[in-house]
Amino acid sequence: MAPLLRTVLVLGTIFIAVIAGITFVATEGAEVVVLSTRGPNGTTRKTRVWVADLDGAAWVEAANPERDFYADLQRNPTVSMERNGETRPYIAKVFPGAEGNQRIRALLREKYGWADWWLQQLVDTSQSIAVRLDAPTGFVAPRQ
User: Fold this and answer.
1) Residue 94, SS3?
2) If you placed Cys at 100, which of 16, 109, 130, 132 could pair as Cys (CB 3.0 to 4.6 Å)?
3) For the segment 87-111, what is each residue's pLDDT rounded down to a tens digit?
4) What SS3 class is residue 35?
5) What is the pTM of this model?
6) How many structural domains is the chain composed of?
7) Same domain, 88 and 125
8) Are residues 108 and 45 in the same domain?
9) Of the candidates 131, 78, 80, 134, which has an alpha carbon nearest to the alpha carbon of residue 107?
10) Do residues 120 and 101 both lie within one domain?
11) What CA–CA distance (Å, rounded) separates 4 from 64?
């Protein structure tokens, strides 16, 4: 192999590794929760998502309307979220459209900062959908 080609391949590999490393740190370096939904065949689907809090509710984002967990919660809005080692039930309410998109984008940008900026360079969230998660009526969290 010619030295120039070898150099280009090595530098290309290093570049890809750096991009992958930054992306991993961006997506996993801050709080990530696990949202459990029911798939169409009744199986449980677990999805790792970012979460932000506003007015006593947790907010997550479906980055686009084709996300499987988004289809699940439209069929059945009862979900559970594992956060800080605890799993709790929630009722999901979707906020599609520009207002919901602006709300969730602002919440995630505020909480995740540079990591949110980085992912915006890689993923189009212009059609993302805000999802508010509310504790079911009468639910009382267990004492710590």
Assistant:
1) strand
2) 130
3) 999 999 999 999 999 999 999 999 9
4) strand
5) 0.79
6) 2
7) yes
8) yes
9) 131
10) yes
11) 42
CATH label of the domain that carries residue 47 = 2.30.110.10
Q: Is residue 91 part of a domain?
A: yes
Domain that holds residue 3: 1-30
Say whether pLDDT at 144 is over 50.
no
Contact 66, 120 (CB under 8 A): no
Give the integer Cα–Cα distance in Å for 88 and 30: 20
Strands (E), the chain: 33-38, 44-49, 52-54, 57-62, 78-83, 86-95, 129-134
Strand, coil or helix: what is 119?
Answer: helix
Residue from 23, 97, 22, 92 nearest 51 by CA: 92
**Residue written as token pair 């991993």:** 24
Structure tokens at 44: 């449980």
Could you give phi then psi for residue 124, rounded to 5 degrees?
-85, 110
